Amino acid sequence: MNVPALLPALLLVAALPSLALAAERPEGIAAAEAIARAALGADCDMNGMEDVPMAGPEAEGFGHALYRFAYKPGYDPNGPDIEAEIYQLFCGSGAYNIRNAFVLKTGDSDTPKLIAFATPHLAYEYANEENSRLAADPRIDGFRATALLVNASFDEKTRTITSHTAWRGIGDAWDSGEWVFRNGDFRLTRFEFDPTYGDPDPTVPKSYVVYEAGK
C-alpha cells in the first residue's frame, strides 16, 4: 500500500466539510459581520474565527443564521410587502453564555443596520449575605439599549427574538427578554429575571416579571 500517494486524496477529503461551510455562507453575511465588528469591537470578535460557519438548528449557537420573511409596512398597509433579512451573528462565547448580535436589512433600504434592543435597568437590594432573598420587590429605574444579547434565538413563526443570560454556570440566577418584530423594528415585550442565588426558597418568588407590554 502506497501511503504517501494516498495523502493528497485524504487531505482533500478532510478539507471538504470546511469548503462546504464556506460555500453555504450567504451573500450579505460578510457585510453584516463588518457592521457588528465595527460597532462592538472586542465584544464581537467571534472567538477569533475568520470564517464563522452558518449554523443549523442543532448547532447550539456556535455559528451565524439568516432568516427571511416579508411584512406589510405600517405607512402603506395596502401596498406591496417589504422583504426583510435578519442576520443572527455569533459574536463570541464564554464559559456558559454565547453573545449574539443581530443585523437587519429591509427591502426599502439598501443599508443594513445593527439592531439595538431596549432593556430595563433594574434596581434591587439583597436582604442577606447569601444573596438568596431580596429586601423588596425589584423596580425599573430606567431603560438602556444594547446591541448584544446572550443565548439568543429567533422564532420565525412569531418573529420574536428571545435571550436568556445565566449569571453563573449553574443558572440559578438569570435574566430573560423577548422582543417582537413590528413594522420594521423590534420592540421589547417582556423581561423577567431571577436575581437570587442558591437553593430555591419556597417563600421567595421563583422569578420577577418586571416588564410586560400592555401591563
From TrEMBL:
One Pfam entry name: DUF1176
Keyword hit for Signal: yes
Annotated InterPro entries: DUF1176
Keyword vocabulary terms for this entry: Signal
Signal peptide (UniProt feature, chain positions): 1-22
Protein name, as recorded: DUF1176 domain-containing protein
Lineage: Bacteria, Pseudomonadati, Pseudomonadota, Alphaproteobacteria, Hyphomicrobiales
